[in-house]
Amino acid sequence: MTVTTKIENLKPTDFASDQEVRWCPGCGDYAILKAVQRTLSEEGAQRENTVFVSGIGCSSRLPYYMSTYGFHTIHGRAPAFATGIKLTNPSLDVWVITGDGDGLSIGGNHLMHALRRNVNFQILLFNNETYGLTKGQYSPTSRPGTRSPSSPSGSIDFPFMPCVLALGAGANFVARGVDTAVKDLTETFKRARAFPGTAFVEIFQNCIVYNDKVFANFTDRDVSLDLQVVATHGMPLMFGAEKNRGLRFDPTRVQIEVVVIGENGVTKDDILVHDETNRTLAALLAAMEPPNHPMAIGVLYSNQVDTYESQVYGQIAAARNGGADLNDVIRRGHTWRVEG
Amino acid sequence: MEGSLRSSDTPPKGGRESRDSVVIRFAGDSGDGMQLTGSQFALSSAIVGNDLSTFPDFPAEIRAPAGSTFGVSAFQVHFSAQNILTPGDEPEVLVAMNPAALKTNLADLDPGGMIVIDRDSFSDKNLRKARYEENPLEDQSLEGYRVLALDMSRLTQAAVKPFGLSQKESLRCKNMWALGLMMWMYDRDRKPTIDWLREKFANRSEIAEANVAALNAGHAFGETAELPNLGYGYSVPRAEIAPGEYRAVTGSETLAWGLAVGAQLADLKLVFASYPITPASNILHILAGLKAQGVVTFQAEDEIAAVCAAIGASYAGSIGVTSSAGPGVALKTEAIGLAVVAELPLVVVNSQRSGPSTGMPTKAEQSDLFQAVHGRNADTPLVVLAAHSPANCFETAIESIRLATKYMTPVMLLTDGYLANASEPWLIPNIEKLNTFPVEFHTNPDGFHPFMRDNETLARAWAIPGTPGLEHRIGGLEKDYATSNISYDPANHQRMTEVRAEKISGIANEIPLQEVAYGPKQGPLAVVGWGSTFGAIEEAVHAAAEEGLEVAHIHINYLNPMPKNMGGLLAGYKDILVPEMNSGQLVKLLRSAYLLPAEGLNKVTGQPFKVKEILIAIRTKLGNCK
C-alpha cells in the first residue's frame, strides 16, 4: 500500500511579499499580480524555487510584491538575466516580467533571441501601449496618431503586434490575455508555466493614468463578446453575444473572415477548429484586429521542442563521458620536460 | 633524408657558430601561413631548451588582397640561451615571402641583418602591388644586408611534385620550405612539426606529405647549398630554465584555463557568456571546448546580453564571467553598475585593443584603464586587476574569481591583444596543489536580509534561489542598510555609497604588498608599469643596471585597490617614469592618489614597447645620455 501525504498548496496570499504595492489605484497590474499569485497557488508552486526577473517600468516592479526570489534588473535586459539563471539552475521556475517599452523597445533584441532559443521560462509582457513610469510617452505598440508628451501632433510610427513579432521570432508558445479577465488569465498562465520552453504571454493592461480605455474597443463589457474570440485547442473558433459568429478560412484570399452561422448558408462545419500546434493558423489569428475581426485571446500557439538549457546540459553530459580533468586539459598537445 | 631527422646528427654541426640570442621575423601574405610557420619554429625552439617569446602581428582582414602591403602577416620569434621576456626589438633575420612583406618589415630589421627572400615572388605584378618602383633585388636598396634570394617557389614545387597537388596547393607548401631552411640554420628538430602536419592533415595525407617534403627540402637546401651568405648555420644553446613540464601558451589559453580552474577552486560552476570580438574571441572558443569539464558557455546576442546572462548566472549561484574588448565593455557598462549595486560576483575580462571606437582591432593598447577604474555612471567602485604575461594570465584569472566571490563584487581583468596572442613557455602547474577557496552560500534564515554583511570583508550574504526561507528581492534601486528594502532615505544612500566604496578599498588589506620586480627599494628612479609592458620594462631596467644606472622596476597587478604600501614605496624614489601604451592613464592615477611627480612615457602605435625605447628614456631621466 502506498501512502501519499497531500501537501497543502500555498495560498495566493502566501505569494505576496510584505511590501506595499505602489501601482496607481485602478491599474491593470493589480489584476495581473493576482492572477500570477493564483496560478502559483493552484499549481502548488514553492516560493524558494520561483524567481521573478524584471527590467524597468511599472510592470517591472512586480517582483517586489512577490514573496518568491526576485531580481529587478536594468531596462530591457530581463530575458538575458533569466537566461543566465536558467543556465545555472534549470530546475528553477523563472518568470520574466516586462512591458511594451521594456520588452519591445529597449529590450527588443533580447526578447527576440530568448524566444528563438526556447529557454524554459515565462515572459509576461504587460502591454499598455504607453510608457507609464516616464509619464506617458508613446510606445512601440501605440497606434499611429497617439498624442503624448513626446508626440503632441500624434505618433507617426507603425506599431508592433507583440504576438505577431513573437511568432516571427520563432516563439514556440504564444498566448494573449486581458487584465480584467483574471480567471482566464490564470488558466493561460498555468499553460505558460507548464510549457517546457519560452512561453510568451501578451496581456492587454489598462493604464488608468496615461492611456485609460485604450483597449475599451474590444474589452468593454458591451463589446467584448463580439470582439474577442477565445482560442481553445480542438474547439471551433466561435464567439459573439449570440455565440453564432465564427472564423472561416478564405482560401482564395488566404485570410480569415468572420461569418455568422445560418447566414449565407454558413454552418458549424465551415468554422475553423483551433489547432494550437499550427504556426500558420496562429499567425493569422495573432494578426487579427478589431473592428473587422475579433481579438484572439488564449493560447494561440504551443509547440514543444527541446529547451535551450536541456541541450546545453545534454552536450555537457555527452562530453563528460570519459572526459579529462583540468589537469589533463592543460597538458594536452605538445609538452616537454626540462630536467633539473 | 634518410635515418634520423635530428639535424644535430648531421655533419655540418662542427661549423655552426654559437649565438646567445636570435630574433627572427617571418613575414608574408595573410594566406601564406606565417602564423603557423612562426609558431612551429617557436615550438621547436622551446623543445631544444631555449627560452623564448613570440609576437604575432596580423591584419584584421581575414584575407586581404594577395600581395598587398596591408595584407602582410608577420610572426616574430625571440629565442635565447638566456632568460628573455620580450619578442625582441629588431629582428636580425627577416624571412620575406613576397615584396609587400619585405617593404613593410625592412625598416625594423637590424642593420646588417639577414633577409631570406622568395625571389620567385618578386614578379612585376607583385612589385606593383607592393608599390615598389624598382625591384629591390636589382637596385642598391638592400646594400648592407645579407640577402639570400632563393627560388623558393620553384624549389618547393619541385619538392612536392610527387604528391600530385594543384599548382596553388603546391605553392601553399612554401612556408614549410622556408621553415625547413630556418630549422637547418638554427639547428632545430623537425619531428614535432612533421608530427603536427600529419595530425593536422590526417584526412588529406597527400597534403601532409607534400608539406613534410617541402620542410625536408628546405632543410636539405641549407645543408647542401653552401651559399656564401648562409655559412654553416648557428646554434643557440639551451637556457637555464627551472626544471619541470612545459608547454607553449598564449595569454588567451592561460586566461581561459585560469577561469575554469578558478571556478573549480571556488567549487562553483563557470558560466561564461560572451559575444565574439577581436581579440577576445579565443577565450570563448577555448572555454566552449571544455564541456567535458562542466564549463557552460553562452554566445549571447550582444555584449549587453552577455554580461546580463553572466550576472544572472552569478545571482543563481555560478561564477558568471563575460569577456570582450573596450568597445564591448563600453556596452556592458550599465549592467556592471547593477552588479556593483546588487553586490554580485562577476568577472569582466577586457582584452584591450587600439581605439577609440573600432580603432585597430588586432593591435594592442592599454587605453582602457580609465574605463576599468572609472568608466561607469555614479560612484561605482569595483576591483581592477591586470595580467602582465601569458603565464600571469592564469594566476590573475584565478585571483579574479577569488576576489569576486569573497567580496561579492565585479572584477575587471585587463589583458590586451598582445598578451592574448603572444606565446611563451609555461611551467605547467599542478592544479591539485593550488589553494582552494570554496564558496559557502548563505542558508540560515535567522535574521537574514540580502545585504547583511560580513563584519570583516563587508561582503553581503550570497543566498541563491532554491534556498528555502531566504526568498528575497534585489535590484538596482537603493536599499536600506538595515533591512535591504528599497530606500530613498538621504542618509541611507550616503551610508550605502560609503560602504560599497569601503568594501573595495578594504581589499587592500589582504592583497600582497607591492614588490619591486627588479632593482633597489628606493633611489633616484623607478619605472612603474602595468600589464603587457612587463617584459620590455624588465629587460630595459636590467640593461640600464648593467650600464651602472640605479633604477628599479615596479609592476602593478592590483590597480584598484592598489596595495596599501604603494604610496610609501613610490615615495622612496626621486623620479617615477610610467611607460604605457596609452596617452597617460596609470600616471594620472598615481599622481592623484599619491601626489607624486610621476611622468609618462607613452606609445600608441599599436605595437609593443621596444626595450630600447624604455632604456633610452631611463638614460635620459638619469642624465646619462650614452
Task: Reconstruct the topology from this structure.
The complex is a heterodimer of chains A (340) and B (626).
Chain A: H1 29-42, E1 50-54, E2 69-72, H2 78-88, E3 93-99, H3 100-106, H4 108-117, E4 122-127, E5 130-131, E6 137-138, H5 162-168, E7 173-178, H6 182-194, E8 199-204, H7 216-219, H8 221-227, E9 228-231, E10 238-239, E11 245-250, E12 255-260, H9 279-286, E13 295-302, H10 308-320, H11 326-329, E14 336-338
Parallel strand pairs in A: 1-2, 1-3, 3-4, 4-8, 7-8, 9-13
Antiparallel strand pairs in A: 5-6, 7-13, 10-11, 11-12
Helix pairs in contact in A: 1-6, 3-4, 5-9
Chain B: E1 17-18, E2 21-29, H1 34-48, E3 51-57, E4 72-80, E5 93-96, H2 99-105, E6 114-118, H3 124-129, E7 146-150, H4 152-160, H5 167-171, H6 174-185, H7 191-200, H8 205-225, E8 234-235, E9 244-250, H9 251-265, E10 270-274, H10 281-288, E11 296-299, H11 303-315, E12 319-324, H12 326-342, E13 346-352, H13 369-374, E14 383-386, H14 390-407, E15 410-416, H15 417-421, E16 423-427, E17 473-475, H16 490-505, E18 523-529, H17 534-546, E19 551-555, E20 558-560, H18 566-571, E21 573-580, H19 586-594, E22 598-602, H20 611-621
Parallel strand pairs in B: 1-8, 2-5, 5-6, 6-7, 10-11, 10-12, 12-13, 13-15, 14-15, 18-19, 18-21, 21-22
Antiparallel strand pairs in B: 2-4, 3-4, 9-16, 14-20
Helix pairs in contact in B: 1-6, 4-8, 6-8, 7-8, 9-10, 9-14, 11-12, 17-20
Q: Can you walk through the features of this model?
A:
- The complex is a heterodimer of chains A (340) and B (626).
- Chain A has an eight-stranded mixed sheet, sandwiched between helices. A three-stranded antiparallel sheet of chain A has the order 10-11-12.
- Helix content of chain A is 29%, strand content 20%.
- Chain A has 340 residues and is of the alpha/beta class.
- Chain A is globular, with a radius of gyration of 23 Å.
- In chain A, strand 7, helix 6 and strand 8 (199-204) form a beta-alpha-beta unit.
- Chain A contains eleven helices and 14 strands.
- Chain B has 626 residues and is of the alpha/beta class.
- Chain B is built from 20 helices and 22 strands.
- Mean pLDDT of chain B is 94; it is low at 1-14.
- In chain B, the strands form five sheets. Chain B has a seven-stranded mixed sheet with strand order 11-10-12-13-15-14-20, sandwiched between helices. Chain B has a six-stranded mixed sheet with strand order 3-4-2-5-6-7, sandwiched between helices.
- In chain B, 35% of the residues lie in helices and 19% in strands.
- Chain B is globular and about 85 Å long.
- Chain B starts with 16 loop residues before the first strand and ends in a 5-residue tail after the last helix.
- Chains A and B meet through strand 2, helix 2, helix 4, helix 10 and helix 11 of A and helix 1, strand 9, helix 9, helix 11 and helix 12 of B.
